[in-house]
């Protein structure tokens, strides 16, 4: 079976239990939960029984152990997660506003994650991989940018695939070197999975139609556009398939895109039909929003299949 690898941040997430603005006053918190976009993505892949692994760094602390234990238990190859005693595991604090937006306090670059870089275990993981999934959020430090580009070369040279979710807010594009790094990854991307406005963010186009034409002409084989509760679409040179979102009660949107992406990339790599893959991934995304906690939203194959049978 083909193996999917990703690179990037592993954090614990600590969430506010009440709505509000920022963290300037004391509020009840709940956590820690295993998290980090690449970690959630790869956990979803593992829960579908697809071989997979992640390159990352954690500290020698309980937060690191929490993450490694969870990923291992779900079947992720954790051999390229380095434990770095001099640094702490990354963290993210989240608070939800009344209007649905979120405030974050991140400790990623200054944590063990900032030490992501080359190692013999990392090379071994790339050599065993058939697909690299890049998360834009993981391009926060030079080490992970270099590794992502190296992995893309190694995997493409042996006929493998590169998938790319920009997973980015506009402000992040202003980080030094970020735009260039994203463009380089995009130039090697087979499957692009943007959310809403990310579709045109890395193009010269003025609208979505222009952005799609530009992306396909630059070598992207297929685009999967995620639009939250509005659903998702699959677009390639042959046309477009739309998949409405399943009606569910949203409890926590964090991780929906990562769960959706993990499910779609797994189906795509297995050569499954795009319409069926889109439906399967939409079910994974819908299930993710019904559960509190970022990685708690990932689903096993049987859960997704049962959901789809119920909604047929
Ligand atoms: P991202 O988190 O990357 O921005 P989205 O929020 O678009 O990704 O979520 C990915 C997919 O998950 C959506 O295309 C949809 O299929 C599903 N999804 C997300 N939010 C909901 C929701 N509130 N109800 C049902 N499905 C949802």
TrEMBL record:
Output the superkingdom of the source species.
Answer: Bacteria
Query: What keyword terms does UniProt attach to this protein?
Result: ATP-binding, Kinase, Nucleotide-binding, Transferase
Q: Which SUPFAM superfamilies match?
A: Ribokinase-like
Pfam families documented for this protein:
PfkB
- Report the GO molecular function annotations: ATP binding; kinase activity
Q: Which Gene3D superfamilies match?
A: 3.40.1190.20
* Classification via PROSITE patterns: PFKB_KINASES_2 (PS00584)
Record domain Carbohydrate kinase PfkB: where: 1-296
The record, for InterPro entries, names: Carboh/pur_kinase_PfkB_CS, PfkB_Carbo_kinase, PfkB_dom, Ribokinase-like
Family the entry assigns: Belongs to the carbohydrate kinase PfkB family.
Protein name listed in UniProt: Sugar or nucleoside kinase, ribokinase family
Q: Which organism is it from?
A: Tropicimonas isoalkanivorans
